[in-house]
Amino acid sequence: MAQGYRWLLIRRNLTTGELAFYRCYAPTLKPLMALVKIAGTRWAVEESFQAAKGQVGLDHYQVRGWTAWHRHITLAMLALALLAAIAAAQPPSTNDDHIPLTLPEIRRLLAALILTTTRTITDILRWSD
Known about the structure:
The chain is α+β, with helices and mostly antiparallel strands. The chain has four helices and two strands; from the N terminus they run ββαααα. Strands 1-2 form a two-stranded antiparallel ribbon. Strand 1 (5-12) and strand 2 (19-26) form a beta hairpin. The protein is extended, with a radius of gyration of 21 Å.
């Protein structure tokens, strides 16, 4: 049997009373707050996967081999990273009328700029104003 420490964390939703269980393992003894912090980062990972499914088609693959699946997943995550980098690079808004662009809006703008050539950039950006 592997050496190390095992814990069972139980989280209770204060509103609904619903319980969530986490099995934890560490090769060395860890403080409770470190385990709670690590368990909490799970939600950020799950939100990233949900964004990838909705925005870049992470779940839209019909492949039968490892290589094709790996390429699809890699390209989808690269596309999501590009959208997130563009969103993070936006300058802070100085005008109260405009809010920063969201990932879906950035995806729509990139698709409109890249996939269509009949409209001008001014026409494409007009919907945002």
